[in-house]
Amino acid sequence: MTDYLPAVMAMLGQAQNRYANPSAWDRLHAELGIRLPTDYQTLVDAYAPIQLNGHLSLPHPATTRWNLGDWIRDTARAWSEVSWEDLDPDEDPRLLFGLTELSFGTRNGLWPIASTDRGETLFLMAADGMLSGILVEDGEGGWAQYEMSFAEWLYRYLVGEDMAGPNTSAFYPGPVQLRRLPMTADERPERWSGPERGM
């Protein structure tokens, strides 16, 4: 059985840990009222703020720019303003996944943790403050559920599986392409490749 956290890190290359800061996570968890998964924290600390393979972005809680806490709050607020009435049954996540309510950034709601430039948003599902499973909205009203850890989801995303619903793969052969997001207006994005992975 694959141990997904080290498998993902093997694809991404040596951890940078440029902004790793346990107190930033403690502050974020206190503000949010939940604890984000350990594998997610490990990957964010190791590489973020980063864009992977030109699409998937991960912010970090210890930076001013690309700040994870700000992004979670802003994204949850924006999703909370969406009208969920009169949806087609095949586009209503409440009906698709048996959710009693649809809320964002609450103890029994969805927590945004990553997004792509293709419009996809990745959410962790919470029930009574405990996180379990992942929902992904594909940017066009389609939803998909994944009963797995973030590390497994990211691994499968990077190897080209459909991880935002049918026909959503974003596979690029060869090493994973990483792009460090600029921290000031004058800084240029830094690009590099992960190790060869035989794909």
UniProtKB/TrEMBL annotation:
InterPro entries: Knr4/Smi1-like_sf. This is SMI1/KNR4 family protein.
